[in-house]
Design a protein that fits this description.
The structure is a homodimer.
Chain A: E1 6-9, E2 12-13, H1 19-27, E3 34-42, E4 47-55, H2 56-73, E5 89-96, H3 102-120, E6 124-128, H4 139-143, H5 146-153, E7 175-179, E8 184-190, H6 195-205, E9 215-222, E10 227-234, H7 242-255, E11 260-266, H8 271-281, H9 293-303
Parallel strand pairs in A: 5-7, 6-7
Antiparallel strand pairs in A: 1-4, 1-5, 2-4, 2-5, 3-4, 8-10, 8-11, 9-10
Helix pairs in contact in A: 1-2, 2-3, 6-7
Chain lengths: 304, 304
């Protein structure tokens, strides 16, 4: 393999209980040039998050194959779960990895979205960075009303789908196809059991209440560990890095006389998020990816 | 390619002026499965540092091919340079990268060293982590007396070569073959022109004067940039990380009321050195390489 021109795809399907269906839908991505990275089902949400990656072309084929299976196997008319949803394949985001840009992922979202609407008769909304209309950048707005409200909502000109006719698929609803930066689940644990403090700090940190761009944050109690946690989703580490969020939390905690016990990353992180933080703390100047031995080696092996 | 089981080799040859000879010797490593990473000649030292990497088997073949060319093309009888040396191929260290261990590199050093002695009639000393005798761990001790003193030195039982007869090769001398951790050239610039301070701090930092393990350090003036620098060789970042050296320098500078302007890495670094520092500063707990998206992807593509 080479390390260049990889893209990740993180479909969310509205099935989190029937392991057979989940397996069949996930297996659809097993085309040449694609690696299945993860399958994470939540029975309460009745939803599964799948992650796979590979070359742009292979991921496009795999994403469509998965969409086809999801539409065939999942009927939303009988679906009840905690998580909001409007389609069998509910969300289909593409994420740039090494050697690909957000623009590549936007193009990919539009190409795959068009094909899903045309061949599977599922109306498609473009969201996130792939949105054509600004009000569709926000997935929550696109999905508001959910599957049950879709027949009415889709008739309004402002909610006409980006691809396909303004009629929901009878069993598969509609799908949001988009592009976004890699998401990092990053938690910081505080040396206190004061849940209010965690909540106050989360409020300072999250963007929606005036905090850091591209950070979502909540405060939680972790009674088993006798501490509290600021739990974050970092939605674009290039805008707010791990060190940016960590630093602000550390500062706010210190002001209350509380120390930071440690942090944790849940699931996967792009390597660059950590390299960026190392560069920040070490005040590393003029550093480039071309100085990373493994990167040079991969490039040399690709070219050779 | 896969990211697994790669090893680096960093031969130092005693030719830094004749570009044709350097090119021919460096080209010898161009065997299948090997990537040439760098060729860095120093005319004053009359010495060239070459770096290449690949699978264990391919690197073994390439290292021998390079040794053969160096022995054939470089005559130490007419060699005068600033850098100490005892052989045409002076030093041949193997360095573990992803998926390989120091033990792998020790085995590789012994295998290639034996072959060099047997086929090229060049006596070989094992040094560094590959040393069989503790006093040969230190390369400087092995090389003391240099090419000119070798005929006498090699007769002493305590300096009998590890492989080959106790007679120097008439033109190529002897070669030190070894294994070592990746070396990182790491400099920290201080916001002052006080060279004495840089030298004092270098002394605090370097191991030889009681400082941090696996750190060599000197103080330099950088008049062009109107600052001074603590210039380091980090010889084992797993024992002393970049953050360890940086932190101590920052502390000592602060004590003198001087700030740190920034740091720089000269040449290549293994990615893990930076990841380790990120983990340190972010107080990241329970993090594993298996959480790095690119790593999981490479593994999945290898297995698939």
């Amino acid at each position: 393999m080479t390390l260049c021109q990889r893209v990740e795809c993180v479909p969310n399907i509205s099935e989190g209980r029937d392991a057979g269906v989940v397996r069949d839908v996930a297996q659809a991505v097993r085309v040449d040039g694609v690696a299945l990275l993860g399958v994470d089902s939540d029975p309460d949400h009745h939803r599964t998050v799948i992650s796979f990656a590979g070359s742009v072309e292979a991921v496009a084929r795999a994403a469509f194959a998965l969409a086809k299976q999801a539409v065939k196997r999942i009927d939303l008319n009988t679906h009840r779960g905690a998580h909001p949803r409007m389609g069998s394949l509910d969300v289909l985001p593409f994420v740039p990895l090494q050697g690909t840009t957000m623009d590549d992922c936007v193009a990919l979202a539009r190409q795959v979205g068009e094909r899903i609407a045309r061949e599977l008769r599922v109306p498609v909304y473009l969201y996130g960075e792939a949105a054509v209309r600004p009000e569709r950048r926000n997935l929550a707005a696109v999905r508001r009303g959910q599957f049950e409200g879709l027949t009415e909502k889709i008739k309004h000109p402002q909610w006409a789908p980006d691809f396909g006719d303004p009629v929901p698929h009878p069993t598969a609803g509609a799908t949001a196809v988009g592009a976004r930066a890699p998401l990092i689940a990053f938690n910081v644990n505080l040396d206190t059991e004061d849940l209010d403090l965690a909540r106050q700090i989360a409020k300072k940190v999250r963007y929606s209440s005036g905090g850091l761009p591209c950070v979502k944050a909540l405060g939680f109690a972790l009674p088993q560990r006798a501490c509290v946690q600021v739990s974050m989703n970092m939605t674009d580490y290039e805008r707010t890095g791990l060190h940016g969020a960590f630093g602000l939390i550390e500062q706010e905690a210190a002001r209350a006389g509380v120390g930071v016990l440690g942090s944790e990353i849940v699931g996967l992180t792009p390597q660059r998020a950590l390299l960026d933080s190392a560069q920040f703390y070490l005040k590393l100047n003029g550093f480039s990816q071309g100085q990373i031995l493994e990167h040079v080696l991969a490039e040399a092996e690709r070219d050779g």
